[in-house]
Amino acid sequence: MSDVLSDHGSGASAVALPAELIISIIRPAAQSSKRTCYSLCLVNKWFYQLLKDDLFGRLDNLTNESVTKLNTQILTKHASFFDTEAFTRSISLAKHIPEVLVAPVFEYCSKRLTSFAAYSDDTHSPGMYFPLIESPHLHRLCLIWMQPPPDVHTYMPYYQTGIFQSITRLVLQSLTHLIVYFLDDNHFFWTTLLRAQHRLPKSSDAFQQLTHMALRASPKGLPFIRGLVSVAKNLKYVVCLHDYRGSEVQTQMSTEAKLREWNDRRCVVVDKNNGWGQDSSLLDSCEQELFWMRVEELVEGGYINDSGTLW
Description:
The chain has twelve helices and eight strands. It is an alpha/beta fold. This is F-box domain-containing protein.
């Protein structure tokens, strides 16, 4: 590559720097912050061409405000921009966003999506966005639902509609990494997944791509975890998520006792707050990478929990 920075005729001498050196400096900076990436893209056309994929590649921690701004940018691009120039690999929603507002993001940016995450702290299911995802190759899914509706009958519309027809396609056959933390002691989500799996042909590859799985481990939920583990033949890492600071602290020991009974050393009990900070921080695709690296270290190190207890 040629040198990029040189004297601009301003009277001050500017040192010419090799393009490779500039890239090694600005790319990590661009990837560290969406705001920084956007600012760098405004420097000149060369920076923009270099960083546009970083700008649109990870659309993480979206809110109503950021989606509104993103929609404005999307509408300024030509029709094939997201098919030929910039490929969005990750979308995550840091709160419930009305479907009508976020629909353009999925329409233009989800065709090559490999990772999706959604967080909800109200009665809107994070699974409501599945029908909007156009990618047939979703590999990573993270769903966090902190306040699902308390009434059993309120759940049912989410699990008896086309949403779970989409889940059959997205979740059962292509996922490699799955994180789900629902405060749902009725476990409609998992019941529906398992029923959907049983309705598929015996030759189906349902769950067979799944290697990493993290689920909320309430006392009623352990049988569902065991059921999914028995179906997903290629699982290597199984995380039982607990809230050590909340009401679930008393169930940690019973979960570990059950795991010892199973004697399945792919399993590890993890505090959902350990390394996450807030519930929504794991929505970031980079934070997920760090989470799974930590899980792999724990399992391969022979630990039954993230407090240092060995099997």
